[in-house]
């Protein structure tokens, strides 16, 4: 029935939320499973070399990757609205993240490695100091990600989840300040492609914090907190999105290197698409938390079920 409604245009997938196009009513939520995460891991090369912000852009344009994404469709064409920029930046964006520590760590290590590779000729000493602060924040995130995996075995996972959520949101806020500084264009004579790569890396790290923060609250069954906190995260993500003007960023890069305008515009659009996908992902998780709470369903039980699914890439949770 749902497949038919999406095919005839009476229902649409917005992020992870399936809505009735006439009434706007939420019909349900699409949720990635452990199978989808494993496929995504293999398709995007996360299993070898870690997540490489903007280095993954060329990979995502490869037909092999597009074929791998099509394999995830589960007969419902659910992935047709998924933009590749969003995929590269924050994973599938479908439901609450089911990624375990190992996969999140690979993404984080890739960000750290990429930070080491970025050469920024502008304000080198200042940049080094900022990079030290970013590296320190990434190290703190790493420790908190490991703690999330231990939540299900804690005597009081709810309290520990609250603590981890606060810590991860604080890390995201610190990284957000760096993003704001890098994204400001008013007082810049020019930018380089390295600036865009730093913005991408920061955005990816911020979204990783958001994923992990909400995952912790679902595991701790703090669904009301997940809903409230999700709205705050959405506001912050929209603020980042509002700072990104692909045309303006590309023009600034072209002032430094006219030949790089096309590449800069492409990457800036991918960054913007990824941030927009992050907003949709957060909205979907807010709605999902509300649905589970209304049904009296445990967030931990829900995550266990979708993680342990071994056949289907996606599940549909009706409201």
Q: Can you give me a brief rundown of this structure?
A:
By secondary structure, the chain is an alpha+beta fold. It contains 13 helices and four strands.
- Average per-residue pLDDT, rounded, comes to 77
The N- and C-terminal alpha carbons lie at a distance of 15 Å
DSSP helical segment count: 13
The biggest sheet, with number of strands, parallel, antiparallel or mixed sense and barrel status, is: 4 strands, antiparallel
Helix-residue proportion: 55-70%
Count of individual domains? 2
Q: Note the run of SSEs as H and E.
A: HEEEHHHHHHHHHHHHE
Strand proportion: 5-15%
Keywords: Plasmid
Q: Which terms summarize this structure?
A:
four-stranded antiparallel sheet, 6% strand, alpha+beta, 2 domains, 319 residues, 4 strands, plasmid, 66% helix
């Amino acid at each position: 029935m749902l497949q038919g409604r999406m095919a005839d245009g009476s229902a649409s997938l917005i992020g992870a939320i399936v809505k009735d196009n006439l009434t706007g009513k939420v019909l349900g939520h699409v949720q990635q499973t452990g199978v989808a995460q494993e496929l995504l891991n293999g398709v995007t090369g996360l299993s070898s070399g870690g997540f490489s912000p903007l280095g993954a852009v060329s990979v995502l344009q490869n037909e092999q990757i597009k074929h791998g994404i099509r394999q995830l469709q589960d007969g419902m064409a659910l992935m047709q609205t998924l933009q590749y920029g969003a995929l590269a930046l924050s994973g599938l964006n479908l439901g609450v993240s089911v990624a375990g520590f190992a996969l999140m760590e690979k993404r984080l290590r890739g960000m750290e490695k990429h930070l080491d590779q970025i050469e920024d000729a502008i304000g080198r000493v200042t940049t080094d100091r900022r990079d030290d602060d970013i590296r320190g924040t990434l190290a703190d995130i790493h420790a908190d990600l490991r703690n999330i995996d231990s939540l299900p075995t804690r005597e009081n996972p709810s309290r520990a989840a609250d603590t981890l959520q606060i810590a991860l949101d604080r890390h995201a806020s610190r990284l957000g300040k760096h993003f704001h500084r890098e994204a400001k264009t008013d007082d810049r004579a020019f930018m380089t492609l390295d600036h865009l790569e730093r913005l991408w890396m920061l955005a990816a790290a911020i979204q990783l914090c958001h994923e992990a923060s909400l995952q912790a609250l679902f595991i701790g069954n703090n669904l009301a907190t997940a809903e409230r906190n999700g709205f705050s995260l959405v506001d912050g993500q929209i603020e980042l999105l509002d700072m990104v003007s692909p045309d303006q960023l590309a023009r600034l890069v072209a002032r430094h290197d006219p030949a790089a305008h096309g590449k800069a515009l492409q990457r800036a659009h991918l960054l913007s698409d990824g941030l927009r996908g992050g907003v949709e992902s957060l909205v979907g998780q807010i709605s999902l938390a509300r649905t589970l709470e209304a049904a009296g369903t445990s967030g931990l039980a829900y995550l266990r079920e979708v993680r342990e699914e071994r056949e289907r890439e996606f599940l549909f949770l009706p409201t």
